[in-house]
C-alpha cells in the first residue's frame, strides 16, 4: 500500500514539472513572435511612371525570303560541254560566260552559209544584165514571154541571196548559243553537268540555276481577320496610318534587326484559300546577301499611331484566359494586379487605352519576389530603346547598356 502511494505521488510531481516547462516555453515563443508579425519589410521594386502619349501601332508578321528572280539554265543547242567558266556558289554578272559547248560544227555551218551567200550573189549580175537586155528589146525583136522569164530569173537570184543570208543568221544564232551566259546578276548553284557531258537543245534537265538576291522578296503572312480589324480601325480614326508608304523592319533568325527597310510590293497581295491568311510580299535591298532564299524572318510593320499608354512587354504577362496583366503600385504602396482586355502591339510594348492614368507606377523589375497586396518601395527606372530596364540615372546619362537586377 505504501509502494502504490509512492508511485502516484511521483507521477503527480513529474506532471507538474512538465506543465511548468511547457508554460515557460510558450511564454518565450510568444514574446519572440510578436515583433516579427508586427513589421513586414517593404521590398524595393523598379518602376516607370506612365504618361499618355501617341505611340506607333505595330504588328510582327512571320515570313520567308524568296529570290527576286530565278532562272534554270538550259542549252539551246546540242553538243559536248567543252568548258565550265564559273565557280559553284559564286556571284555572277549579267553576260558572264557559264558554259562553252563545242562550237566547231557550228562554226563550219556559219562558213557554209557565208559561201552560199557568195554563190547566190554571183548569179545576180548575170540575171540583172539579161533582164535589162530583154527590157530594151521587148516589142522590137524580143517576145513578152522572154522578158517575163528574164524578170523571174532576176527575182529568183535576189531571193536566193536573201535565203542564204537568213541561213547565215540562223547559223550565227546557233553558234552564239554555244556560249551560255548569265541572264542577270545573281548567285549560281552547283552544276549538274561536267566537262565532256553531252547536252541537248531545250532538254528538260537544267544545267544549273541562277537566283537574283539583291533586291530580295519576303513573303509575310497575316490573318485576314486581323486585316479587316485594322481596316476598321483606320476607317474609324482610332488608328492613323500612312497607307502603302508603311515601312517594314526585318528581324533575322538570330534576333538582330536588319539594317535595310523594305517596301510593300503591290503585285502580290492575296488571301490563301487553304489557310485563310493574307499574303504580303515586301521588297528589301540585300546588297551584302545577308538574306537568303528560304530563310525564316519576322517583319515589324508600323500600321499607324494611337493615343494611349505603353506597357513594356517585359513587365507584362498573360493570365489563364489569355488576358494581359501587369503589376502596379497602388495608392497605399502595395502591389496591385491590373487586367487589360484590349492591347495593341507597339514595338517592345503593349499599347492600352483603359485602366491606366497619368502618373501610375508600373513595376518593371523585381517581379519575381513580389505578390499582390505586398508593400513595396518604388525605385525609378527607365526602359531603353532595346526594351531593357536600366537605372534612371543611366538612361539620363546615355549609358543604357547594363540591365537592372531583377
TrEMBL record:
One of its GO terms (biological process) is response to antibiotic. Residues 215-304 form the Multidrug resistance protein MdtA-like beta-barrel domain. The keyword Signal applies. Coiled coil: none annotated. Residues 312-368 form the Multidrug resistance protein MdtA-like C-terminal permuted SH3 domain. Residues 70-210 form the Multidrug resistance protein MdtA-like barrel-sandwich hybrid domain. It is found in: Cell envelope. GO terms for molecular function: efflux transmembrane transporter activity. Pfam families: Beta-barrel_RND, BSH_RND, HH_MFP_RND, RND-MFP_C. Keywords: Signal. InterPro entries: MdtA-like_b-barrel, MdtA-like_BSH, MdtA-like_C, MdtA-like_HH, RND_pump_MFP. One of its GO terms (cellular component) is cell envelope. Residues 110-178 form the Multidrug resistance protein MdtA-like alpha-helical hairpin domain. Residues 1-29 form the signal peptide. Belongs to the membrane fusion protein (MFP) (TC 8.A.1) family. This is Membrane fusion protein (Multidrug efflux system).
